[in-house]
């Protein structure tokens, strides 16, 4: 199977996937990473992909916003839609069996999700908070602050299916982490990243198993009697 990875930053989760596919980290993902697409031209993850010999390209929203005044909300909305439509084309051109968002920091709109779901390619995402907790950005800091205020005792992270509601899709993998009052936000963040690298591999393997199961179910399906 072919796994396509979407990134935006340093790519430490991409590296965990690369190492697992290469058998340098277990469990081993039984697939190949067919391509990496970054939303940022300066993402270090691009270097990681190239070092691993994986096709990598940039799909930059800023290019779509170029020459559009900040206050022109409609034109920016149209540009964002075009960005998502073109992203779907770029992704589907690679014929992936699974799309993994590993630190992809842009919302995937219906203009992307619809064409992808039409060809039944599942999408999973890594989010550094527990289901229903702190959707969106700065989730690690927000969880740590809530822990410091004594509002919650557990933080964590999840791998979930991508739907149009941001960070709300059904979780495949959930990792709970105790929040410690004596811990700095940097220390908590380090624990989150260590567990993300384990979860992204587990989530990818689970999603691939589901794809395999679905296709074998299809094969054993009795032909419809006319
Ligand atoms: N969405 C968040 O962005 C970070 C990406 O890290 P990296 O994989 O680029 O190192 C991860 O913490 C992920 O949860």
Written overview of the protein:
- The chain is α/β, with parallel strands linked by helices.
- It is 44% helix and 18% strand.
- The chain is built from 7 helices and 7 strands, in the order βαβαβααβαβαββα.
- It has helices spanning 12-21, 44-51, 61-65, 73-93, 110-118, 139-148, 185-220; strands at 2-7, 32-38, 56-58, 98-101, 123-127, 154-161, 171-178.
- A 7-stranded mixed β-sheet has the order 3-2-1-4-5-6-7.
- Strand 4, helix 5 (110-118) and strand 5 (123-127) form a beta-alpha-beta unit.
- Helix 1 crosses helix 7 (185-220) and helix 4 (73-93) packs parallel to helix 5.
- It is globular, with a radius of gyration of 19 Å.
- The structure holds 5-O-phosphono-beta-D-ribofuranosylamine.
- Residues 7, 9-14, 45, 102-103, 126, 128, 193, 196 line the site of 5-O-phosphono-beta-D-ribofuranosylamine.
- It is an enzyme of class 2 (transferase).
- Belongs to the GART family.
- The gross shape turns out to be globular
Helical amount: 40-55%
What is the H/E order?
EHEHEHHEHEHEEH
Q: Determine the number of helices (DSSP H or I, runs of at least 4 residues).
A: 7
Mean pLDDT level = 96
Strand content: 15-25%
Concise account of the structure shown:
With 226 residues, this protein is an alpha/beta fold. It has seven helices and seven strands.
Q: Helix and strand layout, with pairings?
A:
Elements: E1 2-7, H1 12-21, E2 32-38, H2 44-51, E3 56-58, H3 61-65, H4 73-93, E4 98-101, H5 110-118, E5 123-127, H6 139-148, E6 154-161, E7 171-178, H7 185-220
Parallel strand pairs: 1-2, 1-4, 2-3, 4-5
Antiparallel strand pairs: 5-6, 6-7
The structure holds 5-O-phosphono-beta-D-ribofuranosylamine.
5-O-phosphono-beta-D-ribofuranosylamine (GRF) binds at residues 7, 9-14, 45, 102-103, 126, 128, 193, 196.
């Amino acid at each position: 199977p072919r796994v396509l990875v979407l990134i935006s930053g340093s790519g430490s989760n991409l590296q965990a996937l690369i190492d697992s596919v290469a058998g340098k980290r277990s469990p081993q993902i039984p697939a190949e990473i067919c391509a990496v697409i970054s939303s940022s031209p300066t993402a270090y993850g691009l270097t990681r992909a190239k070092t691993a010999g994986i096709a990598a390209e940039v799909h930059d929203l800023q290019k779509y916003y170029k020459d559009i005044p900040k206050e022109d909300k409609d034109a920016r909305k149209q540009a964002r839609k075009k960005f998502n439509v073109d992203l779907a084309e770029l992704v589907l051109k690679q014929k992936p069996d699974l799309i993994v968002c590993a630190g992809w920091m842009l919302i995937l709109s219906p203009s992307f999700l619809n064409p992808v779901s039409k060809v039944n390619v599942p999408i999973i995402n890594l989010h550094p908070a527990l289901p229903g907790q702190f959707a969106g950005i700065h989730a690690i800091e927000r969880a740590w602050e809530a822990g410091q205020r004594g509002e919650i005792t557990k933080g964590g992270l999840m791998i979930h299916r991508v739907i149009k509601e941001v960070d709300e899709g059904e979780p495949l993998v959930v990792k709970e982490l105790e929040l410690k009052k004596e811990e700095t936000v940097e220390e908590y963040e380090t624990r989150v990243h260590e567990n993300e690298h384990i979860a992204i591999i587990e989530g990818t393997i689970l999603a691939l198993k589901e794809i395999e199961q679905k296709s074998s179910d299809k094969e054993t399906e009795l032909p419809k009697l006319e």
